[in-house]
Fold this protein.
Amino acid sequence: MPAAPDLVGRLLDATVTTIRAHAAQLTALDQAIGDGDHGINLRRGFDAIAQARDELAALPLDQALQKAGMTLVMKVGGASGPLYGSLLMAMGKAGAPQDPAGIAEALGQGIEAVKKRGRADVGAKTMLDVLVPTLQALQEGAADSASIGELTRKIRSVAADALAATGPMRATKGRASFLGERSIGHLDPGAKSSALLIEAVCDVLEGGS
Amino acid sequence: MTADNVAIVIVSHSALVAQGAADMVRGMVGDEVRVAACGGDPEGGLGTDVAAIKGAIASVYGPAGVAILVDLGGALTNSEMAVELLPGEWQENVVICDAPLVEGAVLAATEAAGGSDLAQVRAVAEELSS
């Protein structure tokens, strides 16, 4: 899509805001089935991104994604750092997207990096269970030449449903897998943070942020 | 002397666990093997820190290579990330062992002290998981 004014800055602000606002909720979800640090860790990473906000906002989107990804890798202090860091860095390496098909291409590359880093795929109760359905919705919308408004409406709905679907799943990756059956009935914290970030990006693309 | 042997890096979520495991290695194996301990997130809480892991590897790195022992999931993910951030020519000389942290560190260091190569050091540690 055409480079909207300060697109990178608005994406940074929206994602930092949502992670800060939901850090306690993410930590509470993680206390139920993980080690209770997801919100604290992601908040530390996004606080570091906020500190570098103006420097990042001056970069083209692809470079900003790579740099923000490296910031998460170095600052988060949990597995979510390399996972989200790899996602953003691989998306950035795919180049600056010009249209929804380009965003889908970049997200696809990012998802492959997350799968590799986490040795996981869909169905293991992870962030991939939100990211992959979101990618599918994005690809379908791009193929149908959907408007941005149609696209974000679809993506919000798909991401919310995908997040809810992690509740009944049994975790087979990460610390939640130690709980086995007891992981069932809780939303996955990584799926929740992914859904929050996707909503924030939708807000920006709709111009509502 | 010690630079000819494989070095050991211990990565735990807890700085105390990492230091304690390193103390055991030094106490049981001696100074024939360089060992670095690394634990805690960037603010000193429980967790692991990619930059600190990278620094720990660099502090003991030598041509014989480095064997890394990790505790739980994030320690592995962050160690893999740290290895990828090392200079390219180092990367094939640094391995992460699929082994229990404390026992793996002591056995790997014992093997390394005898002058075994990196593959052998790793294999001995990983026998604990088989």
